[in-house]
Amino acid sequence: MESTRKDDVVKFENVGLRYGLGPEVLRDVSFNLRAGSFHFLTGPSGAGKSSLLKLMYLAHRPSRGLISLFGRDIATAKRNSLPAVRRKIGVVFQGFHLLEHLTAFDNVALPLRVAGTRESDIKRHVEELLSWVGLKSHMDARPPTLSGGQQQRVAIARAIITQPDILLADEPTGNVDDAMGFRLLRLFEELNRLGTTVIVATHSRALIDRLGYPTMSLENGELTKLPSNEGGLSNV
Amino acid sequence: MFNQRTDLPLHKDPSNRFLPWLIAFMIYLATLATAGVMALDGLLSHWQAGVTHTLTVQISPNASEKKTEQVLSASLNLLNRTHGIAHAKAVPHSEIMTLLEPWLGVSDTVESLPLPILIDVELLDGVQINMERLLKDLKKIEPSASIDDHSVWLERVIRLTQSIQILAAAILGFIGFATIGTLIFTTRVGLAVHHSVIEVLHLIGAKDSYIARQFANHALGLGLKGGMIGIALAGPTLLGLGYLSSRLEGMLLPDVTLTWIQWGGLAMLPVLTAFFASITARLTVLGTLKRMT
Ligand SMILES: Nc1ncnc2c1ncn2[C@@H]1O[C@H](COP(=O)(O)OP(=O)(O)OP(=O)(O)O)[C@@H](O)[C@H]1O
Ligand SMILES: [Mg+2]
What we know:
The complex is a heterodimer. Chain A is an alpha/beta fold. Chain A has helices at 49-56, 82-86, 104-114, 119-132, 148-160, 178-193, 205-211; strands spanning 8-18, 24-34, 38-42, 64-69, 72-73, 89-92, 166-170, 197-201, 215-219, 222-225. In chain A, the strands form two sheets. A six-stranded mixed sheet of chain A has the order 6-7-8-3-9-10, with helices on both faces. Chain A has a four-stranded antiparallel sheet with strand order 2-1-4-5, with helices on one face. The radius of gyration of chain A is 17 Å and the shape is globular. Chain B folds into two domains: 10-49 and 154-292, no CATH class; 61-143, no CATH class. Helices cover 72% and strands 8% of the residues of chain B. Chain B has nine helices and four strands, in the order H-E-H-E-H-H-E-H-E-H-H-H-H. Chain B has helices at 15-53, 65-81, 93-104, 108-111, 131-141, 151-193, 195-204, 208-248, 260-292; strands at 54-59, 85-90, 117-123, 146-148. A four-stranded antiparallel sheet of chain B has the order 2-3-1-4. Bound molecules: adenosine-5'-triphosphate (ATP) and magnesium ion. The site of magnesium ion has 4 residues of chain A, from helix 1.
């Protein structure tokens, strides 16, 4: 189980996390994720799903244990090497974290601009993706003027615009109806088919049952169901 | 470059309203101080040239006009032979009268006054003259002879002027420090205010330099804006002062005007300030972000 494989993009070893002086919200979390896998992450509210994802997108450092991404120990990684790692990870935050002063278009364009992509390429890509998520007519709208579901779609578009190697989605369909939810998940599957490793934290039983990908479960800060070793790739 | 879309809503910060005016005020003061230093520089070199290039020899008039003539020609002879003197010539009587006119008026009484004989002496560049020996030789011809080499009072004025220059330069440095301090402070406030946006940018993969560039461009814009206002206010002030000094010129101050190069230098001040503002913002952001995470 603990063996390291070349195609493990994420590896946790006895990871613990506490916020400040509080109790450990994650305890002894150990797992490997194979490149190109697709997993749901479930568990009751407060179990630590968002916290686990935060560790993976490098928003927090673990209080103990070892995390490697793409085969590199992130504890020893230099600060100026982190942006390059983060650019390979797309994140749909639970609270969206859209920039309110930017238009939907500019929000989605942000990861490309940060990475120095040419403006002409940006325009083409962003318009195409926003059309796909049904926001063609809202490209110039600012997030506060959008509905919850529309904001969520902007957040999803921003997370996948760079075709990341890892996609972490925290409740990405919480604010949309089932039909839109499935449509958005189709985007994730498309990306997964191209090689992206996907983790979707969700409470939606319907989603899990319908798509049938393996799940990992957290309960009270402990992993109770580990990722499946042949998740994702077997679906290709 | 300045209309660049920014990912940070810096254009909405409250500091945008006061910072350009603060910079404008600083530029205004800095321009006046710099112009002062430059103008005094002009005066100084003028005066220093005066010190090194001319002397006046003064001889008391003698009872007999014939003796006076003899003394004058002997003195001129001596002076013109002295190494380091380009040439010496007596100041004509009429010129002395013109000099005295404002005080004594024109009348026959004045004409008959026993006026001293003045000899204007022009020196060669870069040759040191032994003043003591020259005076001793002159006194052999006429014991009342004296040399006024202008240096005593001019040196005092020069020293005073130099102190004023140093003071102006110190003020300039102080203005610079105050401005940089303010910029560092407002940049730090900006980082704190936009903390959550910066966090998102970081998570999306932005480097510190990407974030720093936005602050730097913003500071560049503010600096240019403030600089323009400052120079727009300083220009008329300087022209006004120049006009006033040109009216005083006849009395004491020769040539308190600036050269075109100096005017150009002053015009560069806002650009330089904007440039430094941008570098200050950039370094502040880089330093602060490095310490934050
Ligand atoms: N920034 C924080 N500071 C302190 N405690 C935190 C912080 N974020 C989360 N927690 C705590 O960590 C625990 C796990 O929270 P987390 O957000 O990971 O749960 P979750 O599984 O994502 O829940 P939900 O399904 O409601 O989103 C909770 O007890 C929460 O109170
Ligand atoms: Mg959560």
